[in-house]
Amino acid sequence: MKLVVAFTSPKRSAKVLAMAEKQARALNAELVLLRIMPDPQKVGVVAQLVASERPNLKANKLVDRTIADLKSRGINASGEIRTGEVAKDLLSVSRELGADLLFLGTIDPKKRTIFQKLNPIVSYLINNSEIPLCIVPGEVEDISDSDVDTSDELAAE
Amino acid sequence: MSVDTIIAVIAVALALGFDFVNGFHDTANAVATVIYTKALRPGIAIFMSGILNFLGALLVGTAVAQVITKIIPADHVTLPIVVAVLVSALIWNLFTWWHGIPVSSSHCLIGSLFGAGVMAAGANGVEWHELNKVFLALLISPLVGFGAGALMTWLALLISQENNKEEDPAKLKSRRQMMRWAHIFSSASVSFSHGGNDGQKTMGIIALILGTHFSQYGYTTTDIPLWVMLSAATAIGLGTVIGGWKVIRTVGTKISKEKLTHSQGFGASMATALIIMIASHIGAPISTTHTLSSAVAGGTIPSYGREKLNPKTLKLIVLAWVLTFPVAFALAAGCYLLLKLVWHG
């Protein structure tokens, strides 16, 4: 059995990872962390001008670190990083991987602002996925202040 | 109701459709710098952009719309010309959007007006003086954008010291925060000015339809009624928000930060907003996409040096710039001929 997790980072995806790990352990299933990096060519010319390898490097690092953690706890885990359109390719790559269940995180209903109520990624997957979904609320919000530290950490490496 | 009246009503709807597609097409570029620096979350950036596009279209004035109505002389404007302009501009806009070619809606519209006007009445079918002015504005705006983007980014970096590795971390953090807010303000200004300039192009086209076909109700080709301003503002605002929905589906809600500083984002956006506001004031229809992308490219030089310019993307922008005029010209001329054959022959 293969469980695919729509992964962002260990911090942001903590709850969905914990849920997927619990299920993988109970079902003796394989866990695949899937990260879709947005393709600047599909966004627009300004995105193409400002794009760098930086997000890919960061994603590789975070996925590798999380896989190592999961393996150290006895989970059969692997990772997959692709470039494309996030919502569409979360589904197409999950199909390609033969996922039996797709886990994705979403913000806690009580903490959602009006802008987050209609999450386009979750809506797209609910409307288009034939793969069963496990939507886990309580995803950690990212705040801009913490990004400053992340950038510096990455720049220093 | 005559066939012409039905087609005139459809043409007004097409014009609003063009406005909607314009907003849809340009959202990603207008909010790219704030999203990629994480100054704002994608959802908030897009909602803000939609509201400001609406307000810009409503409040900036009608100088650009007036110029659009003058490219084809009033005594030569006919319904088939306006329909041909709209159909060809929509086709090229949708085709380039589908293929990810960074084309400007303004170029599409001006090229189409030029093509349909010439096909309808030869050299007398366009006001050459007006067309030259518009062409000049479209030509120099990306060049000015490049220079102004470089200058504004250099100034912003000087103030924020964002690239200064020896700066005190506490001071640097507070300056980054300050520059983040300045960046949000400048991005909001881009959306406002985009609505102000691009929304007016549609108003001009609708004024042409009303002035040529509904003159018995007191409409002229030069006056822009309030309902036209409101509907054009709504169309561009809605297009922005719905286009933004697709942007979020593409980039996600938790995007990784690119190596783009708030200073560069602010410099490029502020330069673009100022250029477009000046252009709107003097009645010059210019391209937000090309001005902003040139300003971002210009801002790369003080940020990371000339070698970090992305030549592949820059070539694509130049190619789209060069291609759009002849393609829109030919499409509009072809559409006009076809309409003459099947409808007004």
Task: Describe the structure concisely for a colleague.
Chain A has 157 residues and is of the alpha/beta class. Chain A has 7 helices and 5 strands, in the order βαβααβαβααβα.
Count of DSSP helices of chain A? 7
Shape of chain B: elongated
Distance between the termini of chain A: 37 Å
Q: Describe the largest sheet of chain A.
A: 5 strands, parallel
Based on CA inertia axes, which overall geometry of chain A fits? globular
Number of extended strands of chain B: 0
The CATH topology of chain A, please?
A: Rossmann fold
What is the rounded Rg of chain B? Answer: 21 Å
The biggest sheet of chain B, with number of strands, parallel, antiparallel or mixed sense and barrel status, is:
none
Give the largest interface: A-B, 39 and 41 residues
Looking at how many chains there are and whether they match, the oligomeric state comes to heterodimer
| Stretches with pLDDT under 50, minimum 5 residues of chain B | none
Order of helices and strands of chain A: EHEHHEHEHHEH
How widely separated are the two ends of chain B? 20 Å
Q: Bin the strand percentage of chain B.
A: under 5%
- Report the mean per-residue pLDDT of chain B as an integer: 89
Count of domains of chain A: 1
Number of helices of chain B: 11
Percentage of residues in DSSP E strands of chain A: 15-25%
Describe this structure in words.
The complex is a heterodimer of chains A (157) and B (345). Chain A is an alpha/beta fold. Chain A has a single domain (2-156), classed as HUPs (Rossmann fold, 3-Layer(aba) Sandwich). Chain A is built from seven helices and five strands. Chain A has a five-stranded parallel sheet, sandwiched between helices. In chain A, strand 1, helix 1 (14-27) and strand 2 form a beta-alpha-beta unit. In chain A, helix 4 packs across helix 6 (120-128). The termini of chain A are far apart. Helices cover 79% and strands 0% of the residues of chain B. Chain B has helices at 3-36, 42-59, 63-70, 79-98, 105-121, 128-160, 169-213, 226-251, 262-282, 288-304, 311-342. The mean pLDDT of chain B is 89. By secondary structure, chain B is mostly helical. In chain B, helix 3 packs across helix 7 (169-213) and helix 5 (105-121) runs antiparallel to helix 6 (128-160). Chain B has one domain (3-342). Chain B has eleven helices and no strands. Chain A binds chain B through residues 8, 12, 36-39, 41-52, 54-55, 58-59, 85-88, 115-116, 119-121, 124, 142, 144-145, 147-148, 150-151, and chain B through 28-29, 32-33, 36, 38-39, 41, 43-44, 47, 100, 102, 173, 176, 180, 245, 247-260, 289, 292-293, 296-297, 300, 310, 313, 316-317.
